[in-house]
């Protein structure tokens, strides 16, 4: 749908807060420090004024991928060649592998990325909420500064009714059936004939790593065990772009696949390899997108790369889904800022600090010197510009809450299923506290430096780190424990949720 209106751990940590991050080779580390970016360089005569520090940017790409964990980038620890192009692209940028999604569901998390606000401020607490008019969007900031603004987003939830289109001259939305190839095609179609020097802000969102995992044979063969002869050999799910139960096999409904998974380890390993293959298929199209943009509209792109949320692949007995818990596999996503060739404003490196998607808006407007015409928009995030420049920044806490649960009987520990009863978490330094409101033993405490899998709960009432974490989390909770006053879901919304498999 298109309308035109006026989202390191050892073996450096050893894992990234529940997400594997093996030690990178010295060669890769050296490339990060030196910003080698093999294969990404072009003749610098192509570079326009927007590619040097202090000059006005002309081409800005916000690139987001659905359901992408940090550890699924081969740059950040994947065992297979999942992201060869992104590895090269991001080697020339500032990479934050420990970025927390504020909610492990698409609509509220992307709303936070686009506004710099936590859900209690922007008003999107569920998949079908609409963005509050009181907050300013990133696209509106660019639009007010004279940029042509284009969004090409593939996800059945990102309909215009969610109002994430605000500030976009073109908002091209399609459901999950539009794969990465077709999404990239749509981008080039919208940009056909665009002047090479016109100012452009482009947001592209790919859906492909989301269930169902149905990679094409030519990609799949590089990830699956050739000797595997068990179920779901060619894919996991009923149809490309399938949603609800159709995103899972006909013989394994969503409840059985996600919450009651009894598949043998060999089968689950195979399914995870299908997910990795879908990541690689997306990477191939990101290569086609970025190189195509550089060819068509000059090699002067400022690129922001992120994901909306991660995916639990069996951790904490939660399989092939996200949203119900606040453990790190569903929350930790990659974030990176890549400057054009010749622009010294970004020091290429991997930054192990915990940051949040709410930091994107203040960082980007600071980096590109793009304050809102009406003054700076209030945000909950902080600018990471010092980190982009190679400077150290003080530790700052980051927060997240779980999403709406559609299967409450299956959710362990949670007591209440209104907004105030959601799981909440704070990470401050290497310590993570999870709070379950209403539970008789409401806290879980993890030292992520020694327990990145969140498997050893250290909670005790007299723990020396508990009071400060509780204070941070309860203060944040008080800002947003209740849902904003909104109209109840319409019959159309309820029917849509049922058709998507979210409601019985």
How would you describe this structure in keywords?
single chain, 504 residues, alpha/beta, Alkaline Phosphatase, subunit A, Arylsulfatase, C-terminal domain, 2 domains, 4-stranded antiparallel sheet, disordered N terminus
Give a quick rundown of the structure.
This protein is α/β, with parallel strands linked by helices and 504 residues long.
Detailed description of the structure:
The protein is of the alpha/beta class and 504 residues long. It has 2 domains: 2-395, Alkaline Phosphatase, subunit A, CATH 3.40.720; 400-499, 2-Layer Sandwich (Arylsulfatase, C-terminal domain), CATH 3.30.1120.10. Helices cover 26% and strands 15% of the residues. The strands form 3 sheets. Strands 1, 2, 3, 4, 5, 6, 7, 10, 11 and 12 form a 10-stranded mixed beta sheet that branches. Helix 6 (180-191) packs parallel to helix 9 (265-297). The longest helix has 33 residues, at 265-297. The two termini are 27 Å apart.
Morphology:
globular
Q: Largest sheet, described in full?
A: 10 strands, mixed
The end-to-end span amounts to 27 Å
Mean pLDDT level: 87
What is the count of distinct domains? 2
- Measured as a percent range, the helix fraction is 25-40%
H/E series: EHEHEHHHEEHEHHHEEEHEEEHHEEEEHH
Contiguous low-pLDDT stretches (5 residues minimum) are: 3-54
Radius of gyration: 21 Å
Q: What is the CATH class of the largest domain?
A: Alpha Beta
């Amino acid at each position: 749908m298109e309308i035109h209106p006026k989202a390191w751990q050892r073996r450096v940590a050893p894992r990234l807060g529940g997400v594997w991050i093996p030690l990178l080779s010295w060669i890769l580390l050296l490339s990060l420090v030196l910003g080698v970016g093999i294969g990404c360089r072009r003749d610098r005569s192509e570079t326009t004024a927007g590619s040097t520090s202090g000059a006005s940017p002309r081409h800005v790409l916000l690139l987001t991928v659905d359901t992408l964990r940090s550890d699924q980038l081969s740059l950040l620890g994947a065992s297979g060649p999942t992201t060869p192009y992104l590895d090269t692209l991001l080697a020339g940028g500032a990479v934050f592998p420990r970025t927390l999604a504020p909610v492990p569901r698409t609509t509220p998390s992307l709303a936070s990325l686009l506004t710099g606000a936590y859900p209690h401020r922007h008003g999107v607490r569920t998949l079908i909420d609409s963005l509050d008019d009181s907050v300013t969007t990133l696209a509106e900031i660019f639009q007010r500064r004279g940029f042509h603004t284009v969004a090409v987003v593939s996800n059945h939830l990102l309909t215009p009714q969610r109002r994430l289109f605000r500030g976009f001259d073109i908002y091209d939305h399609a459901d999950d059936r539009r794969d990465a190839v077709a999404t990239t095609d749509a981008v080039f179609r919208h940009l056909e004939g665009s002047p090479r020097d016109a100012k452009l802000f482009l947001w592209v969102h790919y859906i492909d790593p989301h269930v169902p995992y149905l990679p094409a044979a030519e990609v799949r063969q590089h990830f699956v065990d050739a000797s595997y002869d068990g179920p779901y050999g060619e894919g996991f799910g009923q149809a490309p772009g399938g949603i609800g139960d159709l995103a899972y096999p006909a013989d394994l409904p969503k409840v059985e696949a996600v919450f009651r998974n009894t598949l043998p380890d060999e089968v689950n390993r195979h399914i995870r390899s299908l997910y990795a293959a879908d990541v690689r298929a997306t990477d191939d199209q990101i290569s086609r997108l970025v190189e195509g943009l550089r060819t068509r509209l000059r090699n002067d792109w400022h690129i922001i790369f992120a994901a909306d949320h991660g995916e639990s692949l069996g951790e904490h007995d939660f399989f092939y889904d996200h949203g119900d818990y606040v453990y790190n596999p569903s929350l930790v996503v990659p974030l990176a800022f890549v400057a054009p060739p010749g622009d010294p404003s970004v020091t290429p490196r991997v930054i192990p600090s915990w940051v949040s998607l709410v930091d994107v808006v203040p960082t980007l407007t600071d980096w590109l010197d793009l304050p809102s015409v009406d003054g700076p928009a209030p945000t909950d995030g902080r600018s990471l510009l010092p980190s982009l420049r190679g400077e150290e920044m003080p530790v700052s806490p980051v927060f997240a809450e779980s999403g709406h649960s559609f299967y409450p009987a299956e959710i362990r520990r949670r007591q209440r299923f209104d907004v105030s009863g959601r799981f909440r978490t704070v990470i401050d330094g290497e310590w993570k506290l999870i709070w379950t409101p209403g539970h008789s033993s409401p806290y879980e405490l993890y030292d992520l430096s020694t327990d990145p899998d969140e498997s050893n709960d250290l909670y005790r009432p007299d723990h020396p780190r508990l009071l400060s974490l509780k204070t941070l989390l309860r203060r944040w909770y008080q800002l947003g424990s209740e849902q904003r006053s909104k109209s109840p879901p319409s019959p159309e919304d309820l029917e849509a949720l049922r058709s998507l498999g979210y409601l019985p």
